[in-house]
Amino acid sequence: MSQAALRSIIGAALLVAFVLLPFAGLSDYWTYTVTIGFYYALLAASWSLLVGYVGRISFAQAAMSGLGGYASALGVLEFGLPIGLGLVFAALIAGLVGYVLGWLTLRLHGAYLGLTTIAFGEILRISVTAEHWLTEGSLGLQVPPLIPGGSRLEYYYIFLAITVGCLAAMGLLLRSRIGLFFQSIREDEDGAASLGVAVTTWKCVAFAISSAFAGLAGGLYAHFVQLIAPSMMSLQEMGVILAMAVIGGFHNILYAALGGMLLQVLLEALREVEQWRLVVFGLVTILVLRFAPNGLFGMLSNIFVRRRNSDG
Amino acid sequence: MSLLAISEQAINGLIIGSFYALTALGLAVIFGVLRIVNFAHGELYMLGGYAYYLAIASLGIPPLAAILIAVAALFVIGAAIEGLLIRPIHTGKIDRPDEYAIMITFALSVFLLNLANSVFGPWPQRPEPLMRGRVEIGELIISGDRLAAASAAIVMIAIVVFALRYTWAGKAVRAVSQDRQAAEIYGISVQRAGLIAFGTGAALAGLAGALIGPVFNVVPIMGVVPVIKAYIIVVLGGLGSIPGAIIGAIILGQVESFATILIPDPSRALAYKDAYGLIVLVAVLLLRPQGLFGTKDRRA
Fold first, then answer.
1. Contacts of A129 in chain B (CB under 8 A)
2. How many domains does chain A have?
3. End-to-end CA separation in angstroms for chain B
4. What ipTM is given for this predicted complex?
């Protein structure tokens, strides 16, 4: 059996597991938790698309998610958009802002890019907080529900479907020529440019795509929890997203997504230890970065592949 | 506006600017030698505040000695962080060093912030200040704790600048930040310079936290806003530039101090107060990434 076949079997098994999960006696509370987990999975995957594949760091991902949340909510509340279109609007706005951010920061790398994206995200968060005539500021904005009177189970399957759809779209994109362009930029920008890759364009497009998925995730989240506040755009929230992607493995969108789900579930399961959860996550993130840069799932898959090779 | 009001704002700006300069100077020293931006700098600042508070509250040490203890403690913490997490970047043990450096310090800030939240609790503490009462110069009234803290900050900045210029270790640190390889060829231990730089940077951040603690309370999130100011300052002055960090801090201190009384519609102005500096940061990075005094890299 080839590695690719093995991978699709594991992917399919995961999908089946998540489809059947609610039938395994999942309580309402845990259905809710796993639904939020899909939000984080999508957000962490969108971040890893940019950081892991294109090698462009961004600390504005939480802000983009919040931007999407507010865009969709205000689109529905102010312009009377149907919620489906509100979500499209969220992805478009976040994608557009992402494109602009990518374009502005074309010349910047490493720490300079990190600082610019922190500043950009913070400016977005401060603006959303300050303009309370529109956003209700830090009081939080009431958002209409995705499905009026919908059950937890309905939300669960909608989130599952959209997350799987988005991950599949990202996977297809990354397998195409565009994915190769992205990775060539990560490995050697000048080399890629000299071989005819339109580096400028693809760097902007990568920011736009990554932000659009984050915006969509934020929009979904807003219409699920029905109350959003600027704190979802904070650097602390960004730290959680980074921990999720890094612990899962940010060089692979699926690992990053699983990291998002894993940490969200652990955050709920370990509620009684309160702040210590984040202490441990911070520490594990540091250890993973230092000793297992492919993340926990990357490490697991490496061990698995090695064992199979030594057996065969 | 009266002359008195202007001088009051100017002095306020100088006091705030001296704290900003301490934090920014630490970032600049670390960037100069190790070529990394320490995204956990705000949490080192916060730890300095707690070290000062604990030294006074649980050990009963007088404030001036507590300041020195906080500085020493943060030097040791900084050196430990460098040895454990930062050094591998320069010894070729990491695949993608740039990415690693950014993420590891960001993750460190998540870790330290929540650690402080868990150990000390999220509520604010107010340690004893260096000096009580107030000082009157003519009609100007300055509260004593702020004046003492700012004076201590200025003394420390002077010591660090002097040490960088004239001591052997300081010269080694400057040599490594100018040219890592050449410094190594001339027999300077770049590892020791890195250790000294990160330790000094952490100690400066810790001192700033310890000095601010009695003025604005010690609380786990106390470093979040000041560190963003420090980013703005080092970017404005040029990443890695020591004079840039000091002059940038003076500029930002004055701008913030006067902006709050010059802009009409006070509630809106206050809400956006923290955004002005960030806009400056973005603008500088986009138009002149080397800042006012930094050296130009081929690729920022």
1. 271
2. 1
3. 42
4. 0.91
